[in-house]
Specification:
mainly alpha
């Protein structure tokens, strides 16, 4: 007697397969939301204080060609004024002691201000680095989830193929048996 294919069982297996895939996708979506929320919340950091803004501007100006050119022009004018126009009898004669004091004071003030700005930039870079790590970690998790999905699909396909193959073999055996019975009855 020919065995009938159990379509309800096959549909139930497919529904279970879809449920497993759905759970994997939901898990991945939840993880993505957590990551995106974390990254989004960190982007809106506290506003800078006036001192922080000022130190950033001083660092940006102090490290520019504009500053170098303007300061070089200022130094040349200072020296020319004191040596040539005032004939070394000006307010800062040749060893330029006052100019050295001004330069030392500017360097003493400018260095810590630039360091404060660089420390904040370093902190932003560290946070950006952590964000990149989180994104890379999320990508790795997504790849693993994709592998799980593909493995699950392959396993379910193989299971379905084996069921189909089993059904086909049963039908071939039943056909072969009927053919043999028919041949026996016909006497051939």
């Amino acid at each position: 007697m020919e065995k009938k294919v159990n379509y309800k069982n096959l549909l139930q297996t497919n529904n279970q397969n879809l449920a497993k895939l759905n759970n994997i996708v939901l898990k991945a979506i939840d993880e993505e939301q957590l990551l995106s929320e974390k990254l989004k919340n960190e982007k809106f950091e506290k506003p800078k204080s006036y001192g922080e803004k000022l130190s950033d501007q001083v660092a940006a100006f102090g490290g520019s060609w504009r500053f170098i050119i303007l300061f070089s022009v200022f130094l040349v004018l200072w020296m020319m004024l004191n040596v040539f126009l005032l004939h070394d009898k000006g307010y800062d004669p040749y060893p330029f002691i006052l100019l050295n004091l001004i330069l030392s004071s500017i360097a003493a003030i400018q260095a810590p201000v630039i360091m404060m700005s660089q420390n904040r930039k370093e902190e932003r870079d560290r946070r950006r680095s952590e964000d990149d790590y989180m994104v890379n970690l999320k990508s790795e998790i997504e790849l693993r989830n994709l592998h799980e999905k593909i493995d699950l699909l392959i396993a379910e396909q193989m299971k379905n193929l084996f069921e189909i193959q089993k059904t086909q073999i049963e039908k071939i055996d039943a056909f072969d048996k009927r053919l043999k019975d028919h041949l026996k009855k016909s006497g051939t």
